[in-house]
Design a protein that fits this description.
By secondary structure, the chain is α+β, with helices and mostly antiparallel strands. It has six helices and twelve strands. The chain has two domains: 61 residues, lambda repressor-like DNA-binding domains (434 Repressor (Amino-terminal Domain), Orthogonal Bundle); 130 residues, Umud Fragment, subunit A (Ribbon). A hairpin with a 2-residue loop joins strand 8 and strand 9.
């Protein structure tokens, strides 16, 4: 993705006239904008902010394809998709609050709820900064939370097992491209750990988390699939997989 063209699209769609105005909107420095023009892509928090504040479609920002705006037809569910009468009301895209995901004695992952006054129509989902530990068989106990991002309650109620089971994570690597791009932000439902064919899951593997499509095959085994043809699929024992949760949302909804 050409980040210069992407930033030009942002400026045109938002009506901003300077990098200073864009930096203020994104709550970053002007230097951060200049530096990003020399890199590939647009950071996920910027996309979420622009989605929330101006209904901008992340895919259109990145690639210049698809509708410029989303949420004005009510077909998607992230924070920018507000009721029509509220479409010009700017909601805070995120709330800064640190926390930590912990694992209880039964192996259940506990996601701390945002300690903030309830906002009508919105749930806040934590963005996890992965700092993974394989010690004691736990992959999630040392994962830290920095920010919470807003999503419409109606959307969450329709797609998630529980708002208390949702986390956001950034994807690193290209093995799932073009389905999920390097640097993309995805929503993971920790309550969905039963393998369904052709769905995408976050898996604990040694001291890291990988994101792969899974397909059950005979003999209690699972085919682990990357979308990038440069990364061949392989088989694994289903019982040996540590399934963290199912990827249910990114640039679009994924099969659930």
């Amino acid at each position: 993705m050409d980040s210069v063209k992407a930033i030009d699209r942002i400026m045109e769609a938002t009506g901003l006239s300077s990098q200073r105005e864009l930096a203020d909107l994104l709550n970053v420095s002007v230097q951060s904008i200049s530096n990003q023009k020399k890199k590939e892509g647009i950071p996920a928090p910027w996309l979420l902010t622009l989605c929330d504040s101006h209904d901008l479609n992340p895919k259109w920002i990145r690639d210049g394809v698809g509708p410029k705006y989303i949420g004005r037809d009510g077909k998607d569910g992230s924070a920018c998709h507000q009721p029509e009468e509220e479409s010009q009301q700017v909601k805070p895209p995120c709330v800064r609050q640190e926390g930590r995901i912990e694992e209880d004695e039964n192996g259940e992952l506990k996601v701390p709820v945002l300690e903030a006054p309830e906002v009508d129509h919105y749930d806040y989902i934590p963005m996890v900064e992965a700092q993974l530990s394989a010690g004691g068989g736990s992959f999630m106990a040392s994962e830290r939370i920095r920010d919470y991002y807003a999503f419409r309650k109606a959307f969450i109620a329709n797609v998630a097992t529980s708002v208390k089971k949702l986390i956001l994570m950034r994807v690193s690597g290209e093995s799932m491209e073009p389905e999920i791009r390097n640097g993309a932000t995805v929503m993971i439902d920790l309550g969905r750990r039963h393998i369904k064919n052709n769905c995408i899951y976050a898996l604990g593997l040694e001291d890291t988390i990988i994101i792969k499509e899974l397909e059950r095959i005979p003999g209690g085994r699972v085919r682990v699939i990357s979308k990038n043809p440069q990364y061949p699929a392989y088989e694994a024992d289903a019982k040996a997989l540590r399934i963290i949760g199912q990827v249910i949302w990114g640039d679009r909804m994924y099969p659930i």
